[in-house]
Write a structure and sequence with these properties.
heterodimer, A: alpha+beta, seven-stranded mixed beta sheet, 10 helices, B: 36 strands, flat
Chain lengths: 550, 628
């Protein structure tokens, strides 16, 4: 959040297009071969403000600037203007998978009708992946021109196949805001080209000499079942390989060599996926490198374009079942998809029978999530029990932090606004049971006449429950949260209108039971409008009234 | 921020002879620390060739999985023009195996930023340590060269992790003179001259963490030392500093035209106006008509360029001070120059002449009765200080006044910037709630004074600040009505007839009244209750809030609760909330909050946390009321 910053003189500066009106945006791609092409971007518009404004757009890592022209429209003519320091080309942006990009920046002087033309030489047509109806700059008119050599095809996610010269205008997008595409060899259909492209580059990285195979896995392979071995491989990579999120250019989509990963024990998602594939293949399992999408990336990954993906996993076939393994999640149980890939899609490199697979949004293991509150005197006692994927928060915290108890208490304090103490805890990778206690706040109980009016605001809201147990803004999978609250006096007010599937509340003398049914949904917006959230707001809005007990 | 980023894979470079590693046992008292420096050493060399060389060596013991993950990727930042001449890193496994980092484990990222307020560049060096595990030791050594002298810095032995051994050394191989001030219980300064090279060293076993957060600052009495490098045979005294400053801020950047004549002609002020009225009008003129501009690094003697900027009606902090200097000179208003430092960086030390101490510049101007007033340059666009307004990050700090005639220094004198009193930083609000048939209508009038006024009164961001200060809720806005022309510059805001949802029907006669929407969400900021606090805290300013909420219902309203009053008071501050039935149709809620200490130490930090927790509790309380 914004901060009361006058302690320090901080300058906040926005890079935005608020005062820029882009009238025309024309992209032209002239493809030489699969490794090189030229790109021209022409932008025309107005800086309507009295300040310099910056525009910037991303280019891939190996982009080489050929020329920049800058013009201003004066007295009815376009006239060349001085570039000076107006144009800057950055190099890399290391932040995440597939982000091997750099940016071009252009400083637009105030009150200028401007035109800029960037020409660059680029590498790897695989990185050409999306066109946008309104371009990069929310342009009034957008045009994309492609010039392809013979035997090249541009295929689009909406079913188009084009050769030679092709232009896309805003009306070609229909109701779509963006179209994914792939430039490929006309002899191959897009999925096969995409798979081959990756296979050719990943296969050398999979090499793993016997001497690099961890001893503990070799031992397990001799003593334990195949399922145990598969689990041990996953646990090994999950435990030993530390996640490093530095990605450079084309290396953002090509994994590191497995032997190096094992020696250094560092890697990102694609490195962990490659290592797992390699280990599994070494032990004779059927496994694939999966290019995937996390659920934070919107859309559906059903067309072979890197622009629709942002993640990599290992896909293992075990006992005729597909298992989707993402070792980047520290507390993920073997067999469960990680939180970030639940309900998404994956492209299996080299699996020509069926390249795309859907990952269900339901974990495999039993889910338990019980919160039991008891009011005694001026204290509230709480017992929390979790299992399966819902245990991720407790197990994950206990794995990492020396003072994990303090971290757990802080999280619970944040969610409930109470000041908890942890009285006891049992935490394992699959289930946990923790006991807490806290003092009751002034705002929790109001005495009026012979009644207590109890504000249930200390209960964890659905939004915070999702943040705590699914590390997300909306439910990624279905689960139930069962809460009981035992008060000192009998409950005297009726619980009206709170029976139903989404939220069910019932009263038995001094005990209130609330069952919440969380259903997976596709966005925070949908979740916030869900029946559960609506009913919760209704439920929490009124006090629980109990008899006053001395 | 406009940020240009580039990467060069320079990797490991230079040679470093690692200090021998001996296995150490982390003491039980540090077992909960996630990582511990075994050795943390800084050497600064001032070379003859006008260069500064900084050599760092850090040996860190990994004591938790959290640290193993965190320090698998290590990074440090280089400001501006530093060049890395040496970079070496390695990890030492618990079995003694040494794994040196190679070029591909180092990512060297260069970022240049520029914005309206100036430009600068940063280099980020990221080191990827392979296979870090609990029990490992990771070594990092690097050397940075600057093609200039870093003239003055404040230094501490404390760092981001506790340390078993820390050392800082300054070696002066230059022709300049170095002065070192040791403060607040620093270990004994070891000063030697070997082969004509003066060396100053501080070292200590067992060094704590330096906490840096929103409310956390270094303790004023925390051990530190400050060095200053200055010309040989020329002591850096206030006379010298005055000359140095006069070069950047010339008393008259435009010799041909009198600013006074020009402003009088333009009607900015009248001949009959008193000095301080003229000054106020001039500042108001700059604020109203001059656009904020980034002029980059202005040359020190920017006579011509300052004139150009004035003519183009552009201003920033530096230009503001130059304009005001000329204004004061042309109007023959007596003034002195004042210097102090940001309290975030520590207390100003009287009696020492150190550049590091002079980072905040202001004017001490005298009216016709010889009464002193303060004028600070704006801290940013739309952030103009009025006469006698002192930024809260310097108020109460000691400072030095430099008296001189034009560019000739006469004398210095110590003074302390006044601390704003509780009464001056007020937020008062009168809120009227009219309960209707199916909703309630709220109108309110808010008055802010002192620092509250500075933060909320000007610019497009006024409502953002009101929201930031938790005075209003996200979806609401207050309309600025007026700002008083006299200190503490009371600003008035109004809001008329907005619909609020404050009541929930409990049954046929009772309702739950929730005032949270009307009251500030926190004492300074809404989420301060979740803030991490160190053992020394500096609050932004002393403050007082006073809210009166009148809840009216034509059909009658009464409070049903047994407790109608909540109070909390400790050494840091107090909260009082009281609900009174004025008559059958009117309830009055009165809430007063005061924060009476600015610098909090140890137990007082806990007391502040107790204060904000109680505040959160009181404002979230829902009141049971009877509404027919």
């Amino acid at each position: 959040m914004k901060r009361l910053i006058l302690f320090i003189s901080l300058c906040i500066f926005h890079l935005g297009y608020g005062q820029l009106l882009v009238e025309n945006e024309i992209h032209t791609y002239t493809i030489a071969d699969f490794n090189s092409y030229e790109r021209t971007i022409q932008i025309e518009g107005l800086n309507q403000s009295h300040n310099d404004e910056f525009i910037s757009f991303p280019v891939n890592e190996l982009s080489e600037l050929i020329s920049v022209e800058s013009q201003e429209f004066k007295k009815g003519k376009w006239k060349n203007s001085k570039i000076n320091n107006a144009v800057r080309v950055s190099n890399l942006d290391w932040s995440s998978f597939y982000s091997g990009i750099k940016r071009y920046y252009y400083k637009v002087p105030p009150n200028t009708h401007f035109r800029i033309i960037f020409k660059s030489r680029e590498e790897h047509t695989i990185l050409l992946s999306k066109i946008y109806k309104r371009g990069y700059f929310d342009a009034q008119n957008t045009t994309y021109n492609f010039h392809l050599p013979e035997n090249f095809t541009l295929s689009t996610s909406n079913g188009g196949n084009y050769q030679m010269d092709r232009s896309f205008h805003q009306n070609d997008f229909d109701s779509l805001n963006e179209i994914a595409y792939l430039i490929h060899n006309s002899d191959f259909e897009p999925k096969m080209y995409f798979s081959n492209w990756f296979e050719k580059r990943i296969d050398p990285q999979l090499e793993l000499g016997e001497e690099f195979i961890p001893e503990e896995l070799l031992l397990i392979s001799k003593k334990e079942s195949r399922a145990e071995l598969a689990k041990a491989c996953f646990k090994y990579v999950q435990r030993e390989v530390k996640y490093i999120d530095i990605e450079n250019g084309i290396n953002a989509i090509i994994p590191r060599n497995c032997e190096k990963i094992l020696v250094k024990n560092i890697g990102d998602c694609k490195d962990m996926a490659t290592l797992l594939v390699s280990l599994y293949r070494h032990f004779g399992f059927e496994s694939y490198f999966g290019i995937s999408r996390t659920n934070s990336k919107k859309g559906v990954f059903d067309f072979p374009s890197v622009g629709l993906a942002n993640h990599a996993i290992c896909v293992l076939k075990l006992n005729e079942e597909w298992i989707y393994l993402d070792a980047t999640e520290d507390a993920c149980l073997f067999g469960d998809p990680s939180l970030q890939i639940l309900g998404t899609e994956v492209f299996l490199v080299g699996h020509s029978e069926k390249y795309f697979q859907e990952i269900l949004n339901q974990p495999n293991f039993e889910l338990k999530n019980n919160f039991d509150f008891t009011f005694i005197g001026d204290q509230i006692h709480l017992i929390v029990e979790t299992s399966g994927k819902l245990n991720r928060f407790f197990y994950g915290t206990s794995l990492k932090v020396n003072d994990s108890e303090e971290s757990l208490v802080k999280a619970l304090n944040y969610c409930t606004k109470l000041d908890w103490s942890l009285d006891s805890s049992f935490i394992s990778d699959s289930n946990s049971k923790l006991k807490f206690s806290a003092s009751i706040l002034n705002s929790t109980i109001t005495k009026a006449g012979d009644r207590n009016y109890i504000d249930l605001s200390f209960l964890i809201s659905p939004e915070l429950a999702i943040a705590l147990f699914q590390a997300n803004d909306y439910p990624l999978y279905n689960f139930q949260l069962a809460t009981t609250i035992v008060f000192e006096g009998n409950i005297v007010n009726p619980i009206d209108g709170l029976q139903g599937e989404a939220l069910n509340a019932s009263v038995d003398s001094n005990k209130l039971t609330v069952n919440q049914n969380y259903q997976a949904c596709e966005s925070e917006e949908v979740f916030l409008k869900s029946e559960l959230v609506k009913k919760w707001k209704h439920f929490i809005k009124k006090p629980i009234i109990t008899e006053y007990v001395e | 921020m406009n940020c240009f980023v580039g990467i060069s894979q320079n990797g490991i470079r230079g040679v470093y002879y690692w200090p021998e590693y001996e296995v150490v046992t982390i003491p039980d008292s540090l077992s909960e620390e996630s990582a511990v420096y075994i050795s943390n050493v800084t050497n600064i060399d001032f070379l003859e060739s006008s260069q500064t060389k900084i050599r760092i060596f850090k040996r860190l013991y990994i004591n938790s999985e959290e640290a193993a993950e965190k320090f698998s990727k290590r990074e440090f930042i280089l400001q501006d023009d530093g060049k890395i001449k040496m970079l070496q890193a390695r990890s030492i496994k618990s079995d003694g195996t040494i794994i040196p980092l190679v070029d591909s484990d180092v990512i060297d990222t260069y970022s240049k930023s520029s914005n309206r307020y100036g430009g600068g560049s940063i280099r980020r060096i990221q080191l990827i340590y392979p296979d870090v595990k609990v029990g490992d030791v990771i070594d990092l050594a690097y050397e940075i060269h600057y093609d200039r002298y870093l003239l003055s810095r404040i230094m501490r032995l404390e760092d981001d992790m506790v340390s078993l051994y820390s050392r800082a050394t300054i070696r002066n191989l230059s022709l300049m003179d170095v002065t070192v001030y040791s403060l607040n219980g620093m270990p004994e300064m070891i000063s030697k001259t070997i082969n004509s090279v003066r060396t100053v060293t501080f070292e200590k076993k067992g060094v704590g963490i330096i906490t840096d957060g929103f409310f956390d600052v270094p303790r004023p009495k925390s051990p530190q030392f400050i060095y200053t490098l200055w010309y040989p045979h020329q002591s850096l005294d206030y006379n010298t500093f005055y000359d140095y400053d006069a070069n950047k801020y010339p008393y008259d950047y435009r010799k041909t035209t009198s600013l006074k004549t020009e402003l009088l002609t333009e009607g900015v002020y009248n001949e009959s106006d008193l000095y301080m009225v003229r000054l106020k009008k001039f500042v108001a003129y700059l604020e109203k008509y001059f656009s904020w501009v980034d002029v980059g690094n202005l040359p020190n003697t920017a006579v011509q360029s300052t004139q150009n900027y004035y003519e183009k009606q552009m201003v920033n902090q530096i230009l503001f001070s130059r304009y005001v200097l000329k204004f004061l000179n042309d109007n023959s208003i007596p003034f002195n120059k004042g210097f102090t430092k940001n309290l975030r960086d520590g207390q100003f030390i009287q009696g020492t002449v150190l550049l590091e101490q002079m980072s905040e510049r202001f004017f001490i101007v005298y009216d016709e009765t010889n009464q002193a007033h303060y004028l600070f340059p704006p801290s940013g666009k739309d952030e103009y200080y009025f006469l006698d307004e002192i930024p809260f990050y310097v108020e109460g700090n000691d400072c030095v006044g430099l008296d001189g005639l034009r560019d000739k220094f006469e004398e210095e004198y110590p003074l302390t910037l006044p601390d704003s009193e509780l009464e001056f930083n007020q937020h008062r609000s009168i809120i009227n709630v009219e309960i209707g048939a199916d909703s309630c209508i709220v109108s309110r009038r808010d008055k802010t004074k002192g620092h509250y006024s500075f933060l909320t009164r000007s610019g497009e961001d006024a409502n953002d600040w009101l929201e930031e200060l938790s005075i209003i809720q996200k979806t609401k806005s207050l309309n600025p009505i007026s700002v008083d022309g006299l200190f503490p510059y009371e600003a008035i805001f109004e809001q008329d007839s907005l619909k609020y949802d404050l009541f929930t029907q409990i049954d046929d006669s009772l309702s739950w009244m929730n005032l949270k929407e009307l009251l500030p969400g926190g004492i300074y900021v809404e989420d301060e209750v979740t803030e991490e606090y160190g053992d020394y805290v500096m609050l932004p300013f002393l403050k007082k809030s006073d809210f009166s909420i009148f809840i009216k219902s034509k059909n009658g309203i009464s409070l049903e609760e047994t407790n109608t009053e909540f109070n909390f008071k400790n050494e840091v501050g107090s909260i009082d909330i009281k609900v009174t039935g004025i008559n059958a149709n009117l309830i009055k809620v009165k809430m007063k909050v005061s924060v009476e200490q600015k610098y909090l130490l140890d137990d007082n930090v806990d007391q502040y946390e107790a204060l904000i927790k109680n505040y959160a509790d009181f404002v979230s309380k829902k009141w049971v009321v009877k509404t027919p």
